[in-house]
Design brief:
about 110 residues; alpha+beta; Glutaredoxin; three-stranded mixed β-sheet; 3 helices; 3 strands; globular
Length: about 110
């Protein structure tokens, strides 16, 4: 629940901060990677926010369903091990010990 709040807060903060981008970066698209899973009860609200953000042409929103929730009994038909590995790589780069959903990564 707290992580969902953190994710939603981060997404809102990101959206509010879009107008503050440096002038030279205004034409470059911003990549948003949302790690999600069908087995995650907190993911549908994050998915809806990502869907809303997809209306902004300056953003490239990506939904990356991970497979580590599958072990809890809900098989995510869209999940890919490569997405889980990508999220683990981001965590390792930031020296984080955990991965979770929903999680958004902005510009890598």
């Amino acid at each position: 629940m707290i992580r969902s709040f953190v994710c939603a807060t981060a997404l809102c903060g990101f959206v509010l901060g879009l107008g503050a981008r440096p002038v030279q970066a205004q034409n470059a698209p911003i990549v948003l990677e949302l790690f999600t899973s069908q087995g995650c009860s907190s993911c549908p609200p994050a998915d809806r926010v990502l869907e809303d953000l997809a209306q902004d042409a300056s953003l490239i929103p990506l939904s990356l369903p991970v497979d580590y929730w599958d072990s809890l009994g809900w098989k995510d038909v869209f999940a890919m091990p490569a997405f889980t590995q990508r999220q683990k790589t981001y965590a390792a780069m930031k020296a984080e010990n955990q991965i979770y959903t929903p999680q958004i990564v902005i510009q890598g």
